[in-house]
Amino acid sequence: MKVLANDGISKSGILALEKGGFEVITTKVAQEQVANFVNENNVDVVLVRSATKIRKDIIDACPGLKIIGRGGVGMDNIDVDYAKSKGIHVINTPASSSESVAELVFAHLFSGVRFLHDSNRNMPLEGDSNFDGLKKAYANGVELRGKTLGIVGIGRIGQATAKMALGLGMKVIAADSFIPSVDVTVTFFDGQSITTTIVSQSLESLFKEADFITLHVPAQNGYIVDEAALATMKDGVGIVNCARGGVIDEVALIKALDSGKVAFAGLDVFESEPKPEMTILMHPKISLTPHIGAATGEAQDRIGTELASQIITLLS
């Protein structure tokens, strides 16, 4: 059987699939050519990340397709219900990238509170001529310890983020329509651990209470953070989105950054991805990454081997 890993797969995933008797194709096929490629090469399994979309047209055009796999959590680039109605298995790897995404959240938080994103732009330009000026410009940093982190969506990634926040000595609050409460266990290097219960509260109260807000939700029909929501937040709040583009109104965010209502933002995903708006890309108060939340070697190894295990189980 053949597996098309159109957005790539780790070496460990390839080896596991080949050991299970599968041929793995890692050729990058253009979106409009996926259906033709699948049919011409008798592909049984298509694996994607976030770039390739498997919609109704591809599903209808590929009657031999047995599995569609998503290397990651959200499956908004796949017509999941329709695929299942056609007898196609749809799989993903919800647990594999949680720690990697959570660490990126904190990379953005640390960058924001200590101005690293802007300092790294300006030090090469002015570090030798305006050292004291830059030192003064970036002198008003704040600590994360003792501050309140509001987590919107306390699923696997939200919980991984909560563990890191608790380890830093932050207060953690959460809002989640589907998870009323969750026990979060912080495990230390020596085997000791501490467990605490996080009880979901209203989104409105989270916005008012949090010093920093991080979003961990699937794609939405509308904005979670819009102009009205921003107005209810603390002055000087920091906002991070490593979830999905389109959950923050970027026009309203820019206005709030310019006014000082929002101190900084960290964005890994964008409304107009893969071509973010230039006003977002050039803003000095935004820490930027190109949708790399799960892009660590460790996460990709876990994703690859987990996908391989599911495929082998389903088709063996």
From TrEMBL:
Task: Give a yes or no for keyword ATP-binding in this entry.
Answer: no
Instruction: Output the Gene Ontology terms for molecular function.
Output: NAD binding; oxidoreductase activity, acting on the CH-OH group of donors, NAD or NADP as acceptor
**Gene3D superfamilies according to UniProt:** NAD(P)-binding Rossmann-like Domain (3.40.50.720)
| Entry superkingdom | Bacteria
Q: List, alphabetically, the SUPFAM superfamilies matched.
A: Formate/glycerate dehydrogenase catalytic domain-like, NAD(P)-binding Rossmann-fold domains
Instruction: Give residue ranges for domain D-isomer specific 2-hydroxyacid dehydrogenase catalytic.
Output: 8-315
Keyword vocabulary terms for this entry: NAD, Oxidoreductase
Q: Which Pfam families match?
A: 2-Hacid_dh (PF00389), 2-Hacid_dh_C (PF02826)
Which InterPro entries does the entry mention?
D-2-hydroxyacid_DH, D-isomer_2_OHA_DH_cat_dom, D-isomer_DH_NAD-bd, NAD(P)-bd_dom_sf
Entry keyword Cytoplasm: no
Q: Where is the D-isomer specific 2-hydroxyacid dehydrogenase NAD-binding domain?
A: 107-293
Q: Which family does it belong to?
A: Belongs to the D-isomer specific 2-hydroxyacid dehydrogenase family.
Q: What is the official name of this protein in its record?
A: D-2-hydroxyacid dehydrogenase
Species annotation? Flavobacterium geliluteum
